[in-house]
Automatic annotation (TrEMBL):
Similarity annotation: Belongs to the TPP enzyme family. MenD subfamily.
Keywords of this entry: Magnesium, Manganese, Menaquinone biosynthesis, Metal-binding, Thiamine pyrophosphate, Transferase
Species name: Spirosoma profusum
Entry cofactors: thiamine diphosphate; Mg(2+); Mn(2+)
Protein name: 2-succinyl-5-enolpyruvyl-6-hydroxy-3-cyclohexene-1-carboxylate synthase
Keyword Transferase: yes
Amino acid sequence: MPVLQPIIDIAELLHQKGVSEVIVSPGSRSAPLTLAVARHPHLRVHVVADERSAGFIGLGIAQQSQTPVALICTSGSAVYNLAPAVAEAFFQQVPLLVFTADRPHEWLHQQDGQTIDQPYIYRTHVKRSYDLPADYSHADTRWFIERSINEAVSFSQLSPAGPVHINVPLREPFYPADTDTFQYGPVRTIDVCPTQPTLPNDVWHKLLTEWERSERILIAVGQVPYTPALRTILGKLSEEFGIPVLGEITSNLPGTNQFITHTDTFLAGIDPDVANTLRPELVITLGNSFLTRNLKTFFRQYPAHRHWHIQPSAERIVDSFQSLTTLIPAQPVAFLEKLFADLDYQRFLQGDDEDNESEAGEFLNRWQTADHQAARHVAQTLTEPDQPLTDFSATQCVLDQLPQRSILHLANSMPVRYANLVGLRGDLDVAVFANRGVSGIDGCLSTAVGAALATDQPVTLLIGDVAFFYDRNALWSNPVPANLRIVLLNNDGGHIFRMIDGPSRQPELETYFETPHGYTAQRTAQDAQIAYAVCATLEQLAPLLPDFFQPGPSAKLIEITTDKHANQKQFQKYKSKMAGN
């Protein structure tokens, strides 16, 4: 029997608690944890050498499954390299179990290698931290480890979900003898029953009264996972009660005439008189962060009289628009379905109120008209004659040809913003993901790789060159999943800084902000055994995409080279026309 049986029991507990995916970064101190999961017959283990990439690959898998993914790394600086993914998971509310091997604590500050102060290293960026004992001789120690792992797995999934850190000090010997056998189980699992917040009747009737007193009501959706039930109930509320429902590409609302999805265009520099006609009396928000400044600025400058925010728990007050009046701790879909049912029944009892319906219909029409005009404005910008290939036009071309019912990952910086301006066709039924918790570029490629590992659906990543080269260790661990499609917009630098007013006016723009690099992805693709194509004109791009999106034996990468000055000129033309409207 191996000396480190409690570590073997951790692997069995993960399996019994429903964890099936583990990301391992090789190391010696972590060997007992690695061997425990690698030899377990029911755990799927992925080996990723770079801990920073490993963390984001785990995040990508967890985004798809909405269940915890375990990360395992060795001691020392490896632990810090997981921090960016841990922070993103915390603010995006994605469950991760972060197992960090450690030396016994008495060796801290004793000039021993790979030894840093690891307990509670992630501080407020994890939901909870556990520091396991290094010695297992007492029965209470094993009871404590078992109880802690049970709690950690359950707690990572309780609303709001998020990462949990388990620090594991380990003594030598790390490796079992040839005669040692691994015994998985029996272990004791402790289930935590889920709860559903229920609003008291008097609170519910107070909310219904506020709704009835509000003639102009609007629902704004932040970043949420692809949720058909949410789309359905939002559509019913909009259709039956004349409610504008607005969101962005990360809200996973389909690009139809029903939902408002071009706010970044028509809310930019909006005339105050027009703004007041769009100002709601009651705004209801749900989901995580909003992508664009224009949307947030509008609701801060023209706040609603009443603002409800729906979120699964009351752990924190989220007041993005600085106008919150009521925090509603509830699952958004359940709350909105009950709200619709009660309002529908109340309207049946009272009969139709034509005055209220007329006002609501006019309010909805104003928002929809502005949205349709904005969509035409974007389309006109991208269809002017003799346009060169730009990041903007390339994004539209790619998004229009995405496979139906596929997955789209949007990298941060300009790709997610271009995609939001263009929007998605509603008939494609594409699920959109983006790392908008912390909104960094460090891990966008790795997260998409994780998503492709977790599903058989096609996964397309739209990414800029700086984000791609910054994270190309994501492609280090072969094989790269064959269902991954990478669309690389290469304009040779940090293109976003040319679009922002501040840095774009500085003489140091290119050297200190854009940082031109001169790299292409050809050799990276060769090293990773990815099918590679490159194009520099719209005429070349459109014919390449059908074959690019076809299933094949390997992942594929298409590198779209654009000129940063042409990108800037087109985007400035778009903004100047937008201001003219």
